[in-house]
Amino acid sequence: MDADGPPARPTSYIRCRGHHRPMEATLAPGATLLALCFVGGGVGLGAVSGLVPGLHANNMALLLAGVAPSVPGPPLYVGMAMLAAGVVHTFLEIVPTLALGVPDPATAVAALPGHRLVLEGRGREALRLSALGSAGAVVLAAPLAVPITRLMVRLWPLLRANLAVVLCGVAATLVLTERGLASKLVAAAAFGLSAALGLGTLDLSPEAPLAAGGMLAPLFAGLFGAPVLIDAIDGDGVPPQDGPEIAASKRDVFGLSGLGTLSGAVVGYVPAVSSAVAATLALVAVPGRYGARGFVVATSGVNTANTIFALFALVALGSPRTGVLVALESASVPLSMPHLLVAVAIGASAGFLCVLVLGDRYLAVVGRMDPARLSVGLLCGLAGLSYLFAGLVGVGAYLAATTVGLVPARFRARRANLMGVLIGPIVVG
Asked: Is pLDDT above 90 for 16?
């Protein structure tokens, strides 16, 4: 692969916004080795960001974009590293969610069902379900990306005009599918409080030690992570885990992964709508008979598929839909699809293996720790990350979000209703 030299074969093209953009794919041993080294570095960074509680792939990508001008190497290879890091992160982000109950924003709706599997001794199974959900999304997204991109380019004006209506329908479904009047009222209160929190904080740009920060990390740490950790202080920690056998058929896993893929495809083309919202859509669509296993597979598929479809959306529509792709654009990375898709494929393969190799060890290490000390340490660590990403304002948002996050936890409503923190601001506009 040689990003700078002339093509060794006729150049292929993809239609983008009424014109053609060339996509070069050449083979040169030295350039290929250099590209693989960059991708390998991206895999390592994605593994770190995925396994550190509260650290989002966007933060790592934006940090990479900041240092990209000083990195010796073609910008394309830096972009391949960024993309590989983002893909690996989507595979590994489930690990701290399962082991610690501290979710990435994209895995928030699966946090409680997945953590429940861990407490039942089925954590190793949950890890493999997640890896299969993400891998299935890669397999499905690759052939579907081109036709879905063409379809979404045509449908985008209609979708944009009715996005608020769709999201209001999702919110109503979340609330009305709760069991009993009391749970419905609590769900409505949780949704309203989280929406108000999002409206009041997401547009803030506070001074912070890290330029690649933002308000999303403190909000999700408080809404979804801190309540679980507070409850875990008096808990028994992670119990011994059973074997990795999967109690779901191949057909069910593939179907649930497809559901997640389609949900990820929708938001991959919609600005301001994150994979966390897509995961909420998938949560609503997953039949109840699949239980926690279904949520883990579908939401994992969402996160990985969103990365792939958003890449095609960037090429077709000219605007980035994810933080990783914003970083890609800010680093002036050439949009050579063959190179970038190779990075996606390598990142997906590495991410799948990392879940199997590192996930089990992660659970075992956490299981040997004192739950009270671990929980208190993580609560303080999340406060520290909130400060790094958003300064003292971020710490305040983290504490406020924790208070709101305790509402459904204490009154037995689904924590997915807390996704009002994103849905509310999008609906209001």
From this structure: no
**Cα 242 from Cα 408, distance rounded (Å):** 30
Distance (Å, whole) CA 276 – CA 294? 16
Distances (CA, A) of 97 to 23, 54, 217, 235: 38, 10, 14, 17
Q: Per-residue pLDDT tens for 155-173?
A: 878 877 887 888 888 788 8
Question: Average pLDDT of the chain?
Answer: 81
Per the CB < 8 A criterion, the answer to whether 80 and 42 are in contact is yes
Task: Rounding to the nearest 10 degrees, give the CA dihedral for residues 398, 402, 404, 408.
Answer: 150
Q: Is 120 helix (H, G, I), strand (E, B) or coil?
A: coil
The set of long-range contacts for 326-329, using a CB threshold of 8 Å and a minimum separation of 24, is 326/58, 326/61, 326/62, 326/65, 327/58, 327/61, 327/62, 327/64, 327/65, 327/82, 328/61, 328/65, 328/79, 328/82, 328/83
Residues 6+ apart with CB under 8 A from 249: none
As a whole number, mean pLDDT of residues 216-237 equals 81
Helix (H, G, I), strand (E, B) or coil at 155: helix
Q: For residue 173, what is the DSSP state? A: H
Q: Are 2 and 28 in contact (CB under 8 A)?
A: yes
DSSP state of 334: -
Show Cβ contacts of residue 426 under 8 Å, excluding neighbours closer than 6 positions: 163, 164, 167, 272, 273, 277
Top pLDDT among 322 and 225 is at 225
User: Can you read off the two tokens belonging to residue 394?
Assistant: 């971020």
Burial of 411: CB neighbours in 10 Å, binned 0-12, 13-18, 19+: middle
Domain spans of the chain, in order of start: 28-172+236-376
**Region of residue 368 (left: phi > 0; alpha: psi -120 to 50; beta: else):** alpha
The shares of helix, strand and coil residues in the chain, as percent rounded to the nearest 5, are 75, 0, 20
Which pLDDT belongs to residue 90?
85
167 membership: H or E segment, kind and range: helix 123-176
Question: Can you give the pTM of this predicted structure?
Answer: 0.75
Do the strands 19-23 and 12-16 form a parallel or antiparallel pair, or are they unpaired?
antiparallel
pLDDT number for residue 345: 93
Residue 368 DSSP label: T
Please name which of 415, 105, 411, 369 lies closest in space to residue 232, comparing C-alpha atoms.
369
